[in-house]
Amino acid sequence: MSAHAPPKKLHVAILGCGEESQSASFMGSALLSGVLQSLKGQEQPEFTFTISAPSSSSLERLRRQFGAGQSGVDIIITADNVAAAREARVVILGFQPQQLAQVFEDANLVAEMHGKLIVSLLAGVSLLKLADKISPQQRITRVIPSIGAQVGESATLVASDTSLTSDEQELVFSLFKLIGSVQLVPESLLNTVTAISAATHALSIVAVDSIVDASVAEGVTRTTAQAVATQCLRSASTLLQGSMTIESFKESMSVPRGITINALLNLEKGQVRAGISDAVQYAVNYAKNM
Question: For an engineered disulfide with 225, which of 46, 65, 212, 270 has Cβ 3.0 to 4.6 Å away?
Fold first, then answer.
């Protein structure tokens, strides 16, 4: 699917931003941060964002982060979900999954959802359950960004099997492509691929941490070791997103009697490959049972 720039004068509401260490509400803030970063220095479409937060501390945090306005984008901050949704064309649900019933107890908010495109960031909450709480006729999709959203490097997942029109799906794509890559995934596999994304982040960090510790033990400064390891991780990712496959990448580095092939053979002594696969499968099964 091709991506197009979002239409001008797009008003987006994000309900439930700003709670620290909480996945969905944190992701709402990360999404807005990433969008604003993406728009810096560019010819900008006319966005308006309205963001709501559930507590005074969250509101204060959002005002410090976004209150002055950034990148020429209008940002309205409010404690009122109904007011936040009223003028929006797109409403993003960024509160906690367990708050779904509580949030939509408000009949006025349910009424404001009519005719709007709803994007849910609520992990583990199905489209069927969302429609039951809001409206069976409502146009809803599920989107799961990754933590890289705040720096424009999200691996965002979008449910492919929804009732959205092609134009609405394009709109969702265009918005979330501002913060990274977008992959269409059947809703039945969203939790599975989310677990793969989370495991990739976690296992990569463990690998880099181990590399840095070993480097320090060999006399390299921690700053240098981390800079080299993270840049190599970045370059490998870029190459694999291009024309190279995992097999061709490995082959290009593994010259006869070379450093890389000997490091890989030594790594296999610890059955690391099997350990990684087991960890990913555990994460997937855990996500399925959430």
Answer: 212
